[in-house]
């Protein structure tokens, strides 16, 4: 992600702040505040600020006074469009070309390729995301006659995950 140059948070006008928060679905502190406007294919919000597209999660941290220059805006909640400041933190690693979540995703699908320099918090988030479902839930899913899409929405996973569970491509040892 691009650096936010040398613009200090105090230089962001009230108008710009309002324009930003209008694109966020604000909820309670514990819930995710999703970005309603333009998103990348991975689901990250993009905010047009002074002619540049900036990551909405990065902009959120910036508004909270956290300088993410040379850092990466990471999600505690593993939800790319989330802009709840309480769910975000600045990750510290040298390679800032990719967000932690992309790494988490990668870890989910290709664990062996998971880069070793990723901060511990990100790794923990990735492991948590990977273990989203309990064995009990997997058995419930297999018993259900509902569509993969409906089950995916209910359990908060992709419909492909449901398909893989039902067709015993994953959780193979569980019967
Ligand atoms: Zn969140």
What does this structure look like?
Among the domains are: 9-92, no CATH class; 135-166, no CATH class. The protein has seven helices and six strands. It starts with 13 loop residues before the first helix and ends in a 9-residue tail after the last helix. It is of the alpha+beta class. The radius of gyration is 18 Å and the shape is elongated. A hairpin with an 8-residue loop joins strand 1 (24-25) and strand 2. Strands 1-2 form a two-stranded antiparallel sheet. The protein has helices at 14-21, 56-63, 100-109, 120-130, 135-143, 148-155, 159-166, and strands at 24-25, 34-35, 46-49, 52-55, 72-75, 88-91. Mean pLDDT is 76; it is low at 94-98 and 106-118. Bound molecules: zinc ion. The site of zinc ion has 6 residues, from loops.
Put the structure in a nutshell.
The N and C termini lie far apart (44 Å). It contains seven helices and six strands, in the order αββββαββααααα.
| Helix-and-strand structural type | alpha+beta
Strand order of the largest sheet: 1-2
Q: What integer value in Å does the Rg equal?
A: 18 Å
For the secondary structure, the number of strands is 6
């Amino acid at each position: 992600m691009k650096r936010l140059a040398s613009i200090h948070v105090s230089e962001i006008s009230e108008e710009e702040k309002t324009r930003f928060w209008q694109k966020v679905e604000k909820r309670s502190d514990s819930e995710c505040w999703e970005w309603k406007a333009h998103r990348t294919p991975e689901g990250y919000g993009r905010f047009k600020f002074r002619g540049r597209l900036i990551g909405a999660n990065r902009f959120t941290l910036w508004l909270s006074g956290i300088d993410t220059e040379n850092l990466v805006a990471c999600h505690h909640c593993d939800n790319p469009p989330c802009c709840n400041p309480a769910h975000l933190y600045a990750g510290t690693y040298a390679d800032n070309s990719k967000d932690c979540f992309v790494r988490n995703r990668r870890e989910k699908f290709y664990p062996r390729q998971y880069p070793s320099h990723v901060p511990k918090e990100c790794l923990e988030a990735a492991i948590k995301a990977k273990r989203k479902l309990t064995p009990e839930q997997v058995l419930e899913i297999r018993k259900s006659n509902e569509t993969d899409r409906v089950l995916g929405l209910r359990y908060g996973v992709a419909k492909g995950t449901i398909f893989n569970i039902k067709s015993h491509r994953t959780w193979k040892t569980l019967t």
